[in-house]
Amino acid sequence: MNPFVYNRAADAADAVRRAAALNAKYLGGGTNLVDLMRETIERPPALVDVTGLSREIAQTPDGGLMIGAATRNTALAEHPLVRERYPLLTRAIVAGASPQIRNMATVGGNLLQRTRCVYFYDDDGARCNKRRPGEGCDAIGGFNRMHAVLGASDACIAVHPSDMCVALAALEAVVHLEGPAGARSLPLTDFHRLPGDRPDLETELAPGELITAVELPPAAVAARSAYRKVRDRASYAFALVSVAAALELEGGLVKDVRLAFGGLAHKPWRAWKAEAALRGNAASADAFAAAADAELADARPRSGNAFKVELARRTLVAVLTDLAGAVA
Amino acid sequence: MSLAEDAKQLVQGAMQGLMGKAVALAPDSWIPGGKPDPLIRHQHGHIGKPVTRIDGPLKVAGAAPFAAEFPLEGMVYAAVVHSVVARGRIAELDVTAAEAAAGVVAVMTWRNAPRLKAPPVFLSDPKAASGDNLPVMQDDEIHWNGQPIALVLAETQEQADHAKSLVRATYHAAPAVTDIEAAKAEGTKPGVFMGQPLHNKIGDAEEALAAAPVAVDATYTTPGHNHNAIELHAVTAYWRDGTLRLHDATQAVSHTAWTMAKMFGIDEKQVVVTSPFVGGGFGGKTLWQHQVLAACASQLTGRPVRLALSRESVYRMVGGRAPTEQRVALGADRDGRLKALIHRGVTPKTATNVMPEPFILPTRSAYASETMLLDVQVVELDMLANTFMRAPGESVGTFALESALDELAHALSMDPIELRLRNEPEKDPTLGLPFSSRHIDEAWRAGSERFGWSRRNRTPGATREGEWLIGVGCATATYPYYRMPGGAARLTLTRDGRASVDIAAHEMGMGTATAQTQVTAERLGLPLEAVTFNYGDSTLPGLVLAGGSQQTASIGASVIAAHRALVKELLKLAGNDSVLAGLDADEVGGHDGGLCKLDDPERCESYASILNRAGRDSVVVEAEPPMPLETQHWSMHSHGAMFCEVRVNTVTGEVRISRFLGSFDCGRILNAKTAASQFRGGIIMGLGLALMEETQFDPRKGRIMNPSLAEYHLPVHMDVPQIDVMWTDIPDPHAPMGAHGVGEIGITGTGAAVANAIFNATGKRIRDLPITLDKLL
């Protein structure tokens, strides 16, 4: 770990001011950033601790929720309104990490966690276009069983490791930001980037911009929702594939549906094509399979992860079948 | 209270306790015609009791000092810089920025490290402890990807860790052999283990296989595994008056002292290694470069050095289990009697160690077969030396062998337990020796009854509960009884009726100190509280490796030898005024704080009384047991019958173990509680071997890519069901206490039991470990 300056922000404006002055990174629970600093993959000259900022979970006038970015994952997962209105979010959060880590991790930090690609983590020993753009990617042709099958590039096949963000993508969450140039907001599905030829740029955050809150719009569809995570052991492992799904039926037809995948791409993957294939159609096993195929037709597996395509298809169909059964 | 009164009370105590029976002295050897250790018949004393571990309170209180917890004045803290190429020479090694960083005391590289001899490699000498024979930081040559190239020494660990990142190295890389397939294409060499070829041949097995009415023939593969003891490897090193002192985390204190002495060119006695507590060994806590580097750094800086490896550094510089590729072919008649047994394959090692993963070991004594061909071939890679890891050979060898047995049982439509029992050998098939103790049939009988084996559905893929297919499987576990030469113990008996044992043995968390305290107390006829077991110090007697599950026997035999010497000395001291006068050692035994004539419980004198009359405060004896000739006369093994129930998800291929039972035949169990934990721990490690453990060794660079507990998967709590264990408790008449060590057997057979259960659940036979869900989609 490199020496760094530590600051604690009083409020969002203070945090932005300090970060700009110190060229700092924002520190939430530190559950990922501190690890990366220990590995010298991140070498910020300064940290501005933003865990003192808003951790309020408040109802919005339209019936949604505004979640302060410093809210701990555990607090969000346990919140009665989240459990009642957005059960898939609670399930996604508790599917990740361990209780100790969830007690520390913040909502803002969760959005910014970086990939677990083993070549990304091997600062000295491997090439990685995320760490040093242009030097090459050792995951291609290496161990890539955990890696992306959707939206990847020849520069990077890493996946975003978050569970929570997969649920947020399905829930059409909005990310509120504050930066040197003022405040703005972005849909979560636009917040993370695909790797393209600049995998070092993982989000649309401008330099110095701070996540202040995540907003959940009302989502009647989420009343029937699920998060299913498939991994290599029963707990404490990143997703090979995960599915966040919400389904609303009317007269045997799909009135509304939200689907997102984790473990398949450089960002939480909203399955727009699958949703479009389902909306207004019969909720049948065949339709679910066809929807999965529509989404996964673009999949481009690598040497070690071809199974993910079939696994994603099966998991999506199983989740939708369960939800349809629960609705009926 | 005066000593005399004390003694009187002890005598009275002895008289009151005469309902019990004195324990005769154990024989001084285990050879044909000899008598067994009388302790094996002692059913009402300390032996076998579930005594809670004596070091438990210390550990719970955080008061048990581990190797990285010895505070010393002026300590410097070390961090290791590792090579990132597998072969070649260091071109540039720029340490100026690191040296200039805050708190840095020195940066040690091959340029300024003290000159040393290369270490004697494990198995090259009875006292050798090193994982390989490569020189340690003596030149610019790189032998493996991960080799230490610099050691940064600073006033704090954080300063050392930071400065380490400032060391800049470039390399003249040379061609390296890091791909097993490429190495195999160049040809293999015969494997040799402990001086013996890993090769056995009885008749023409290939011919018999071809002629057999029923046959199975398949290849099984297992990946590399890394050591992941909860306590990271660590050492605190300093020199005082020409003596090197190491507080180490080791399972070989005396071996380490000798090996370090050889390297530094000093006398063995000038190296003192202590290791009072070790947080898991499993074969990995021997001598690797870190102890040597710390000792060198202490010499270089003139200050004590603490080197606590990071998890990544453990992966880079402490060897693990090598991968294997094993062919097992079985030919049988229609009754299931084996006509041919072939177990052969390839495993990589380095040119610098002598440890091919000996996966045919369990097969040598497992089954009667008319013909047999067992063979291990090796290829040599440019990698970190592989090493011993819990049941080397048996853990992965039984996966292949016992999977194949299950495949044959399926081909024969026969109960796999019946198939195994039908092929029980009358004597060791490859050695021709009688078995010392083999009650595997009883382990199977009791285990299958407890598990409910007869209620299983024999048809694969036929039991379903929602998305989950359910199946059961079984396999034989087996591990040898070893006792290595070199044991010795000192026994001290004091006038207050207390005894202590001194032996250079080890406690890595398995309960050695507790179980051996029970044994010693039982032999001497003392309460547990009156016995102290001292260990973990190279200045104590004995060369006692805590490896090969041999420590139980080695300590046991050493204490027996010391006990005989003690009793002889006591009888001498007792003299003609004693009620024991005229008796010799074999006529008396320890009982209630003294010695009694075996067949006349009235003739007793307490230890206190004997010492008191002789005017002695204590008696100290030291003795060595005879050579382990028992293993020359008998084939000595532990066994187990392993039962597993799994659930396999039909959608995702996820596997969950829902039940596990290990039914063991390991001689007499010394402590029911610590032994059960050893069995369970082994089984848990076996579940990891079956389902998730895998070192990702990238053949392009010869580099381990998952040196972290986040990416190298071990079972978490939710992966481990309730594990039931039971044992025959039938003593081995040819072993001290009738006991076998139980540290390794639990991991054996487990992988196959899981794989066989998965077959029963799904009809899919997975022959490639770990059985991850993608293999079941």
Description:
- The complex is a heterodimer of chains A (328) and B (777).
- Chain A is an alpha+beta fold and 328 residues long.
- Chain A is built from 13 helices and twelve strands.
- Chain A has a domain at 221-327: CO dehydrogenase flavoprotein, C-terminal domain (Enolase-like, domain 1, 2-Layer Sandwich), CATH 3.30.390.
- In chain A, strands 4-5-8-6-7 form a five-stranded antiparallel β-sheet. Chain A has a four-stranded antiparallel β-sheet with strand order 9-10-11-12, with helices on both faces. Chain A has a three-stranded parallel β-sheet with strand order 1-3-2, covered by helices on one side.
- In chain A, β10 (241-250) and β11 form a beta hairpin.
- Chain A is globular.
- The termini of chain A are far apart.
- With 777 residues, chain B is of the alpha+beta class.
- Among the domains of chain B are: 3-62 and 485-627, Aldehyde oxidase/xanthine dehydrogenase, molybdopterin binding domain (Aldehyde Oxidoreductase, domain 4, 2-Layer Sandwich), CATH 3.30.365; 393-482 and 632-776, 2-Layer Sandwich (Aldehyde Oxidoreductase, domain 4), CATH 3.30.365.10.
- Chain B contains 19 helices and 33 strands.
- In chain B, the strands form eight sheets. In chain B, strands 4-6-2-16-13-14-15 form a seven-stranded mixed β-sheet, with helices on both faces. In chain B, strands 8, 11, 12, 17, 18 and 19 form a six-stranded mixed β-sheet that branches.
- In chain B, β26 (594-597) and β27 form a beta hairpin.
- Chain B is globular.
- The interface between A and B is medium-sized, with 32 and 36 residues.
